[in-house]
Amino acid sequence: MIHDATSHFTLNDDHREFLYRCALSDEIIEGRPYYSLSVDSRMHLAEKWNFSNDALRGEGIVIPRYSPDGIETYPQIRYTPPRLVVNEIGKTEEQKYTCPVGSGGVIDVPPSATEQVQDATIPLLFVESIKGADALLSAGILAAGFHGVSGWKLNKAPSPMLAKIPLAGREVGICFDADAVARQDLREIVKELAGLLRFAKARVTIFDIPPNAGPKTGIDDYMAVLQAAGMEE
Fold it and tell me: Which of 30, 46, 113, 224 has the highest Cβ tally under 10 A?
């Protein structure tokens, strides 16, 4: 489903190749659709979604996002390459993603998967990035994504968007990035989400990315490795 307002925006070749390397298929890329920052798309993001002028500087990929019931919501920008910004304590750090202020708690499901997500008989995997969920969807695995390990929360409480996903009796998995295996603070957040899903009567399984994949490996990185290994066989 391509919306009229964004139908003329395009994804440049370098950005498409980047998404290919993240194990995304053309079907998933076009279905969302991903598009590149341009003069027109920057104007659209500022006018419709209140992105600041600073957020729209640099180059990047725009990731439209959708609630589990198919309603378009605040998009996200993935900077390519990441921007260097100064944080609140004066330290320079990389910024990979941004989205408008006040747009937290988005549990994303692309339009192509809305019907499946509403069917509690189909297993569902929760992951900590939109791109990661799309890598799984490209492989035929139903997934919902959010931004970061605590992205399923809004103001320290469960996001209202979780209530839009049928969970009772459903087989549900959680697969966070590889650092969630080693870091106790992240492990506690995994347990917290698992407890919430079990309270909603889902049957929950926690999946770990193998530690030998590297501490910063996300599910899209891991899917890309599996995809490459399959091509070599």
Answer: 113
Query: Is omega for the bond preceding 81 within 30 degrees of 0, making it cis?
Result: yes
pTM over 0.85: yes
Sheet bearing 92-98, strands edge to edge? 35-36, 60-66, 72-86, 92-98
Type of residue numbered 23: A
Please count the other Cβ atoms lying within 10 Å of the Cβ belonging to residue 180. 22
- C-alpha to C-alpha distance for 22 and 16, rounded to whole angstroms: 10
Residue 216 sits in which domain range?
Answer: 111-232
pLDDT at residue number 214: 76
Q: How far apart are alpha carbons 181 and 187 in whole angstroms?
A: 6
User: Residues 93, 99, 103, 105: is their CA dihedral positive or negative?
Assistant: negative
Same domain, 35 and 118: no
Are residues 55 and 115 located together in one domain of the fold?
Answer: no
Amino acid at site 122: I
For residue 231, the model assigns a pLDDT of: 52
pLDDT of residue 4: 62
Asked if residue 103 is part of any domain, the answer here is no
Per-block average pLDDT, block size 10, for the chain (233 residues)?
71 97 96 97 96 95 97 97 87 93 94 97 97 97 96 96 98 94 92 98 95 82 87 47
* 131 inside domain: yes
